């Protein structure tokens, strides 16, 4: 029940000790402020890391050739391994039932592209049609490389939006011809990549065309696979581990690489990396919560100490109240009210300040691994509950001490 007199007492006590109350409130507000800022930063890191996984389809397995580091079957280490179409065909044939999407890639790094008077050096990749799904490319206009392009080795190009803006400005690129290392290609599509401008500063060409036109023979730079989806992450992870182990053994055997040589044939599975990043996010959140809560505890200890001082100053008053019939419970409630009021108001100010800062500064931070720092409603509600609990905890021990004071002892206090 609302008690006007009790609230008047609280405000009078605060008015008598403005500076002390202000400093106490600052300690609590700063604790909540730091906690919410840390949680917002943690969420920003989590969003940034999650964004990186959106750059590719879920569970992409990349395979590339490297340099051997171990002697094997009489061959010296230091050999540069080269993948070929036959490696792609062997992997697809062997694991056909497990594979969902697959693509082979032949890269032309930093090739010169010319359109009219505009020119620049960009990455070009010869790919197969399913590469679009693997990279999660969105076609803004036109189309992607198709089967007919592969069969007929057509000279067509699908360019990124950033590349289009560089060369064509505001002009429609579809149907126009560009020169890639002095070879004419017709633009048939423009794509957008979730990876951003870096990924959109490239052109995709039919793999067979690149191999023929740029004297690549049957060479490929890397392979990409996705496996059929499973019901649980554990099943998907187990299949990924099995697939990478078996395909590695097959390709190493075909290219005469030692089974335990990790550099000759490189493999990376994003689904195996997902757990590491989720664990990292968990550790970041736990660490931030720990630091924030420790800061709040420091503030709560400060409030508790102040309330102990207040109880000491009001010892005679408490003794008179008890002598006049005040129950120990009413004394406890009186002290707790003041403690909870100070911590809740101070904490609420710290909460609002931190949310405002995240709202204003968050969008200004530009980083691939830090995106949209925010604190959701559930976390905000949790901090409010934490505030009330902290206020009650801060005032409990002083209140218990006040309730334990004997009237005769209190009246003798000077």
TrEMBL record:
The chain crosses the membrane at residues 21-42, 287-311, 331-357, 377-397. It is found in: Cell membrane. Residues 21-239 form the MacB-like periplasmic core domain. It is a multi-pass membrane protein. GO terms for molecular function: transmembrane transporter activity. GO terms for cellular component: plasma membrane. Keywords: Cell membrane, Membrane, Transmembrane, Transmembrane helix. It comes from the Bacteria. Residues 292-407 form the ABC3 transporter permease C-terminal domain. InterPro entries: ABC3_permease_C, MacB_PCD, Macrolide_Exporter_MacB. Belongs to the ABC-4 integral membrane protein family. This is ABC transporter permease protein.
């Amino acid at each position: 029940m609302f008690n006007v007199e009790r609230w008047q007492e609280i405000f009078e006590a605060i008015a008598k000790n403005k500076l002390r109350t202000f400093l106490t409130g600052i300690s609590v507000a700063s604790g909540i402020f730091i906690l919410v800022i840390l949680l917002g930063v943690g969420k920003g890191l989590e969003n940034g890391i999650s964004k990186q996984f959106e750059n590719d389809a879920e569970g992409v397995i990349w395979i590339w050739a490297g340099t051997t580091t171990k002697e094997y079957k009489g061959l010296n280490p230091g050999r540069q391994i080269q993948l070929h179409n036959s490696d792609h065909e062997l992997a697809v044939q062997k694991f056909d039932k497990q594979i969902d999407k697959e693509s082979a890639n032949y890269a032309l790094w930093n090739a010169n592209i010319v359109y009219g008077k505009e020119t620049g050096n960009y990455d070009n990749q010869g790919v197969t049609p399913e590469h679009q799904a693997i990279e999660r490319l969105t076609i803004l206009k036109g189309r992607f490389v198709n089967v007919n392009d592969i069969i007929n080795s057509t000279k067509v190009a699908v360019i990124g939006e950033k590349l289009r803006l560089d060369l064509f400005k505001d002009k429609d690129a579809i149907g126009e011809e560009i020169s890639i290392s002095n070879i004419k290609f017709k633009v048939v599509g423009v794509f957008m990549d979730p990876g951003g401008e870096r990924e959109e500063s490239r052109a995709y060409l039919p793999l067979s065309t690149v191999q023929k036109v740029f004297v690549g023979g049957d060479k490929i730079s890397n392979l990409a696979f996705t496996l059929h989806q499973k019901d649980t992450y554990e099943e998907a992870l187990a299949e990924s581990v099995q697939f990478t182990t078996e395909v590695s053994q097959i390709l190493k055997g075909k290219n005469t690489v030692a089974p335990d040589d990790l550099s000759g044939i490189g493999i990376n599975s994003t689904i195996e990396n997902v757990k590491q990043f989720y664990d990292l996010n968990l550790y970041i959140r736990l660490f931030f919560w720990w630091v924030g809560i420790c800061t709040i505890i420091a503030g709560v200890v400060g409030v508790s100490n102040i309330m102990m001082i207040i109880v000491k100053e009001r010892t005679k008053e408490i003794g008179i109240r008890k002598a006049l019939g005040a129950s120990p419970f009413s004394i406890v409630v009186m002290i707790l009210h003041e403690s909870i009021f100070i911590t809740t108001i101070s904490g609420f100010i710290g909460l609002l300040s931190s949310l405002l800062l995240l709202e204003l500064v968050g969008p200004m931070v530009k980083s691939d691994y830090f995106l949209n720092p925010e604190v959701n409603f559930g976390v905000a509600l949790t901090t409010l509950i934490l505030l009330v609990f902290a206020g009650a905890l801060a005032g409990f021990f002083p209140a218990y001490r006040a309730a334990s004071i004997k009237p005769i002892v209190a009246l003798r206090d000077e």
